[in-house]
Design brief:
Length: about 220
Amino acid sequence: MKTIIYVDGFNLYYRALKKTNFKWLNLMALCEASLPKDCEIVGINFYTARISGRIDPSSPKDQHIYLKALATIPGLSQHFGSFQVSDKLMYLTQPLVFSPKLKTQPLPTPKFVSVVKVEEKGSDVNLGVHLVRDALLRKMEHAVVITNDTDLCEPLRIVVEDAKLPLTLLSPVAKPAKGLEKLATFVRHLSPYLGVSQFPDPVITSTGEQLEKPKSW
């Protein structure tokens, strides 16, 4: 089956990779290891946004190296949304709950606090639109989506019910969201394949550049 993979990059990172040593992930190797042998992977679409260094100054450089490593995979396309970091005044739960717990509450008890709010915009929309377009144009015989974002339920429904194509949810979590699980034709889990699907260190590009795995990874 001609198969196209759609990867929700931030969902994959925060759900399956952030607290692991498997961030140097080769997406082609992952898909080949975790999908049935009759899947002919004709494309991988990776959806993300270029991150800010406000919280972690090393993060943009690490991401840049990883995106260059991904670019060495034949047939992989990268699609970018936007990454927004802003100060927001947020209402606090009452009474306040602290971790670690405080013996005494600060007085006067505040009701609002300014926080650094991080938002990624556009990636889920881009993924959903491309998924539906490719299904209706019959660019594939089988779709695979890596996400646990229920905002993508309607695109999945259109692919399966309207376009009549099989769709595999390759879940980054042990218990996928019920809405996604219900819509998918098949559900598989990627966690058992993370360790065996890492890039070599370093990755050698077509121009001979050596891309070394970030030290913090």
